[in-house]
Backbone:
């Protein structure tokens, strides 16, 4: 039964993905956009209308999301084999994809909120899927951080009432200098920053690695974290050349740098890949804040292809290593898992921007546009330093896991034997190699000449080579970052722990609120309220009912005492 759910879901999503992709080609060639208004319900003079925007961007994105989802579901059939709740898991993943579809096709803030909250709710269910303490903590920080963005989106819906309609697409250009639209822009950027984990909301992204690996492959490639970027691509006209765009540029470049440095200190395989996602999200957000929405969308799609493959390969390695995620226990896997390691290496090189792989076409173009743009020295320096750090942690990961010495148990059965998982990975391998060139023909059909001085033209290649050499040599010769380069332990602790962001997000924000709530419950709800409220009334009624029941016993002595008391009282009143 569970097998049929996986296979049926795979074929259905794959067919739908191919249909949407060929439809997007038709839309690109003919420069079409279709705006659909579907009246769901009409009651007296009130009607509920669902609006759908179909253009080349939404169709291409939907086709990529569905293709990656189909491969991930097919891969899950083997990875989650033996799980009693596999059917529930697949249904949750399908709900996740459906929420993303809502978000992609909506030109309306209300239907965007349906998809947005759907992503948040289902992601919480998927993060806590394994039902242990670590999963619950990760799910809570994910849900609470994303609630900030949900509130911002709800507030922007309230502000959109000033315009008479929630179809924001009508007002973006003509109202972009309006005061109310400026407030909406700030709120939408805040919502996007929480969903795409920009500083200071970055801590939930590595924590969400508590979810099963197929979920991580889906979340980090094309669904949850890209929702914020996609929303800002749609709202891009609102904040171009404003103070908001400058602020977003600074925060996104700092996110990119922070994630790059943090990944070089990390030893958890999934967390390293999660931090690389965070770095790439910073890259997308930064180029988006400069006004290049199509370029950000281009990198979003290419990144989705190789990042899903990277997570699937990592899942296969973790599966073979008996659920061990520490890269220090790996090594020499290329001789035992040649096919998986080949896919892993290709995805890693695509992440680094290796020429003619998927990541190269978008990443190199972004770096050249940054060199061509009028940015200050800090932004320029951080951009290229972060690019070098990406290659550095990729080479470090390659050294620890693929080459080097095998450090796991001598009695093991590590082999490329999970054929269903391998088929899912090979399905993405083709696009991780050729997807970038194919998309560049579609999105940028006219070649653009970017004229730069030779040194600036070669800057991306130079920093990549330097980062690669640094990453491999440092860890090959076991030079410790702590001892040789940075004498100060507190500084290495700061850099290696995402600038203390997880601690700030949990201990300093959540813990104080939880303690305050506990004190309020103990002193008010279970304290004074009980003493003067329900408990006190209960005791009074109990005592009153006891006296009343005593009077109802029909005892002659009681009646006699009452009669004497009554006569005595009347006598006293007559005297006075």
Residues:
């Amino acid at each position: 039964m569970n097998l049929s759910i996986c296979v049926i879901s795979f074929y259905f999503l794959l067919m739908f993905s191919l249909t949407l992709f060929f439809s997007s080609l038709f839309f690109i060639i003919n420069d079409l956009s279709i705006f659909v208004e579907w009246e769901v319900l009409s009651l007296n003079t009130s009607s509920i209308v669902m609006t759908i925007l179909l253009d080349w961007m939404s169709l291409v994105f939907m086709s990529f999301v569905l293709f990656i989802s189909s491969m991930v579901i097919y891969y899950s059939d083997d990875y989650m084999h033996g799980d009693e709740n596999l059917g529930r898991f697949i249904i949750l993943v399908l709900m996740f994809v459906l929420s993303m579809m809502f978000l992609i096709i909506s030109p309306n803030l209300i239907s965007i909120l349906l998809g947005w909250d759907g992503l948040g709710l289902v992601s919480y269910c998927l993060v806590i899927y394994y039902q242990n303490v670590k999963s619950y903590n990760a799910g809570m920080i994910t849900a609470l951080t994303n609630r900030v963005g949900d509130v911002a989106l709800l507030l922007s819906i309230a502000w959109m009432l000033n315009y008479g309609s929630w179809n924001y697409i009508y007002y973006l250009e003509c109202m972009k200098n309006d005061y109310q639209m400026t407030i909406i822009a700030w709120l939408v950027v805040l919502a996007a920053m929480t969903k795409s984990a920009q500083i200071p909301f970055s801590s939930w992204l590595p924590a969400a690695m508590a979810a099963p690996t197929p979920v991580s492959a889906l979340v980090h490639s094309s669904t949850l974290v890209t929702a914020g970027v996609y929303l800002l691509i749609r709202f891009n006209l609102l904040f171009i050349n404003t103070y908001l765009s400058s602020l977003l540029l600074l925060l996104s470049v700092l996110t990119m740098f922070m994630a790059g440095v943090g990944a070089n200190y990390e030893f958890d395989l999934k967390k390293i890949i999660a931090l690389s996602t965070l770095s790439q999200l910073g890259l997308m957000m930064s180029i988006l804040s400069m006004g290049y929405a199509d370029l950000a969308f281009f990198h979003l799609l290419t990144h989705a292809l190789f990042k899903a493959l990277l997570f699937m390969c990592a899942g296969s390695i973790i599966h073979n290593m008996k659920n061990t995620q520490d890269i220090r226990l790996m090594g020499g896997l290329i001789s035992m898992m040649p096919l998986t390691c080949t896919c892993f290496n290709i995805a890693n090189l695509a992440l680094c921007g290796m020429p003619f792989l998927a990541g190269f076409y978008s990443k190199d173009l972004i770096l050249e546009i940054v060199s061509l743009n009028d940015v200050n020295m800090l932004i320029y320096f951080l951009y290229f330093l972060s690019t070098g750090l990406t290659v550095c942690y990729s080479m470090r990961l390659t050294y620890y896991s693929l080459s080097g010495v095998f450090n796991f148990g001598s009695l093991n059965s590590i082999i490329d034997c999970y054929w269903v998982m391998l088929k899912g990975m090979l399905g993405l391998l083709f696009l991780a190699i050729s997807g970038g060139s194919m998309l560049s023909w579609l999105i940028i059909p006219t070649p653009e000449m970017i004229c730069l001085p030779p040194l600036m033209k070669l800057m991306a290649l130079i920093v990549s080579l330097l980062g690669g050499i640094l990453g491999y040599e440092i860890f090959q010769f076991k030079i410790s970052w702590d001892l040789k380069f940075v004498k100060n332990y507190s500084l290495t602790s700061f850099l290696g722990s995402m600038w203390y962001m997880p601690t700030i997000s949990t201990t300093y924000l959540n813990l104080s609120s939880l303690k305050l709530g506990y004190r309020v419950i103990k002193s008010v709800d279970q304290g004074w309220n009980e003493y003067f409220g329900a408990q006190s009334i209960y005791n009074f009624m109990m005592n009153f009912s006891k006296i009343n029941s005593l009077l109802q016993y029909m005892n002659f002595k009681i009646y006699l005492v009452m009669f004497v008391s009554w006569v005595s009282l009347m006598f006293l009143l007559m005297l006075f």
Notes: The longest helix spans residues 501-532. The beta strands are 33-43, 46-55.
